[in-house]
Amino acid sequence: MIPFRNELILALVWVAISGSYSIPNLAFGFVIGWIVLFLVREQLQTTKVVIRPIALLLLIALFIKELVLSAFKVAKLVLSPRMDIKPGIFAYPLKVDRDFEITLLANLITLTPGTLSVDVSDDRRTLFVHGMDCSDPDQARRDISQGFERRILEAFR
Amino acid sequence: MSGAAFLNICATFALGVLTISFLLVVVRVLKGPSLPDRILALDMLVAVAIGFIAVLGLRSGVTLYVDVAIALGLVGFLATVAFARFVMSGGVDAIKEEAEEDRP
Amino acid sequence: MIDGIGDYLAGALIVVGALFALTASFGLLRLPDVYTRMHAASKAGTLGSCLMLIALAVHIGEFATTLRALAGVVFFLLTAPISAHLLAKAAYSAGYRMWRGSVSDDLAETVTAPKKNGLVGTER
To answer: What are the protein's UniProt keywords (chain C) (predicted)?
Structure first.
């Protein structure tokens, strides 16, 4: 583990966004990153995360494909003369249990076709998902667990 | 047709399309009917505005527009989060109720 | 980047992005309740503005600025679902009901107990 890894990442992001590649600016970014991480220190989890690069790339590829597909699906639905939708909220039992995995899954679900995460139960076992087409919740649940959740488990376990 | 001329036509067309979508979103802001609808429409308005800025940056070639787009995205996100917290705490009705309770 | 190809690519990207923004705002007008509208805004809207920012990144073709534009795209992709999610949760917990054509509501069973401020049960 590299010391001050998170501060260094924030410093590099700062340098990229401010567009001035110099040592003082990097140091300034490091100081800002340290202050930010100091402010949120109580919310940070200190679990050790294993990242598998290839699985992570597959997850990103799947995500981009699903985002484009979902935008087309929404476009098709909106432009069709008769909107035939059956919206509803269904519960999705979570297999992932760490906070950052739940956050990631919820965000990915929001950007995929016809689903939008609304809430997480207090015990972090169930995710409530609003579906554009809720006529077959079991199929929707299967899609999520076969797609994103499996890929997340592969990428971070 | 040269690349620059093609880009110019595309940019003009995109500006027209964005103007139409901007007006459609404004109709939703005015119509409501509920507070979350309006907040959502305002969020969408920011997204359309970022599109506008990107197209303007393409046409003029001024790189500063990138920073404007990022800053606007940040402000829009924070505004939506603040509005959502406001709705979660009960919205306008809760404030009215509190004011009425305070009255002797 | 070779001049011609970059221009054509950027032009195509902004047209597609603008059309996605148009469908998103069209959906915002046509869909029946706040939750279904959120689908249109959070998906088509996000993709639209991201495509237009990518077009800007392609067109400028200068390393520092392209990196900044791509950072903007990543930032937008990260924040759009968070704000949609937070707004949906806020609207639901403040008691805004779903459209009457909705077919199922698993969340209703869990929030019958009044939460903080006792606002969940209030009818609107």
So the answer is: Membrane, Transmembrane, Transmembrane helix
Residue with tokens 């100081």: A31
Torsions phi, psi of A57, nearest 5? -60, -40
Architecture of domain B3-102: Orthogonal Bundle (1.10)
If one compares A39 and C106, the residue with the highest pLDDT of the two is A39
**Alpha carbon of C34: minimum distance to chain B alpha carbons (Å):** 6
ipTM: 0.78
pLDDT of residue B19: 93
For the segment A49-69, the average pLDDT, to the nearest whole number, is: 81
CB contact under 8 A, C18 and B89: no
In whole angstroms, what is the distance from residue B54 CA to residue C76 CA? 13
Average pLDDT over residues A82-90: 74
Interface test with A, best of C38, C107, C111, C120 (most A CBs within 10 A): C107
Report yes or no: A147 and A62 within 8 Å, Cβ to Cβ: yes
Q: Give the start-to-end residue ranges of the domains of chain A.
A: 5-39, 53-156
Selected for mutation to probe chain C from A21, A110, A132 (highest C CB count within 10 Å) is: A110
Q: Is the pLDDT of residue C115 over 70?
A: no
- C22 CB neighbours in chain B (<8 A) are 17-18, 20-21, 24
**Triad C16, C21, C25: Cα angle to 5°:** 145
The per-residue pLDDT for range C34-43, each reduced to its tens digit, is 888 888 888 8
Q: What is the CATH number of domain A53-156?
A: 3.30.70
Amino acid found at C124 = R
Which of A16, A88, A116 is closest, CB to CB, to C84?
A116
Angle value at C-alpha C23, between C17 and C29, nearest 5 degrees: 140
In whole angstroms, give the CA distance from residue A128 to residue C109: 11
